[in-house]
Amino acid sequence: MSIPPRVVYLEDLEKPAAAATKENITVTEASTADGEAVKVEMKSTSSTPSNKTAAKKTSTGATKRQRSLMDMMPSSSSAPSSKVAKTELPTLNSIPFSMSDYRNSMTEEQKKLLELECETMGKSWLKVLKDEIKKPYFLNLKKFLYETGVRGPDSAPMKPEIYPAPKNIYTWSNLTPLGRVKVVIIGQDPYHNPGQAHGLCFSVPPGIQIPPSLRNIYAEIKAEYPGFEPPQHGNLTAWAENGVLLLNSVLTVEKKKAGSHQKKGWENFTAQVIDVVDRYGGANLGKSGGFSAGRGRGIVFLAWGAWAAQCVAKLDKNKHLILTSVHPSPLSAYRGFMGNGHFKKANEWLERKYGPDGCVDWTKL
């Protein structure tokens, strides 16, 4: 903590200076209340100065003394910057957000392009991403999507079709509030066949055939939790509601064209989502006190495949548990995904961190 400049006048000294005589210079040693030895120099042309002259001399001496002490004090710029930076992160629940004020801050074009975000993005996420979605790269992404028919939540589909439906693009943000995130599973693209994508990576709606990668995920859970009976559906909504953020790094795709919306801007946006999770993920889990209360204390990232591993490469491994392996695709699952033990490892770490309530019931689907 820096010491603010302190004005010390002659009357603050423990030993008063001796009276000066004509044309003499008297140098008297004294000390401040802090025990600091100093020298005070005074000049006088008369041993019996008038009150007016004495006041002037005292004022001059005090000014000189004040300047000398201030020179000795450490500069405020020498204060450690880490303490300042630490207090800059507000608690998640203290961050204010008013939708009406936010809309009023927009230009007409922004209101048109960001209608979907305002209507469908979970508010715990929108309040920390509200500035991000006003950036030029995101507005350019939204212009591109607007031309393809992705506008408001109930926009009629155009040709070629874009998946998932606009109202489902931010499903992940509504089912998994930011402060309740325990685990992040990172995918790449939404499924690109009709009816598959619904805003959660690796998941499909009820009635849709279970994708091969998800079948391998079920098989690994069965190996770790023998009592698990894989369901006859691929809907992972129960995981999302239990704190598992199922996030694709690209949130839209053109029908039957895998990767068609890559490098349009989604990757930049979801990188910011991960950054927000780094700062606030799990903020409302368990019990905490002191500075960490209301701020992220660490969660689990499951990064399967080279792309997912790249997305989490810069995260603090001392703060988070980061588990990587090959992708669960049939092309690679038996080269390191099967047998990786990720689901049990995640729960063991979460229980140590947050207690039994911090665990995910992977078998409940």
TrEMBL record:
Residues 31-86 are annotated as: Disordered. InterPro entries: UDG_fam1, Ura-DNA_Glyclase_AS, Uracil-DNA_glycosylase-like, Uracil-DNA_glycosylase-like_sf. Residues 174-350 form the Uracil-DNA glycosylase-like domain. It catalyses: Hydrolyzes single-stranded DNA or mismatched double-stranded DNA and polynucleotides, releasing free uracil. Transmembrane segments: none annotated. SUPFAM superfamilies: Uracil-DNA glycosylase-like (SSF52141). NCBIfam families: PRK05254.1-1 (NF003588), PRK05254.1-2 (NF003589), PRK05254.1-5 (NF003592), ung (TIGR00628). Belongs to the uracil-DNA glycosylase (UDG) superfamily. UNG family. PANTHER family: URACIL-DNA GLYCOSYLASE. This is Uracil-DNA glycosylase. It comes from Lentinus brumalis. The gene is UNG1.
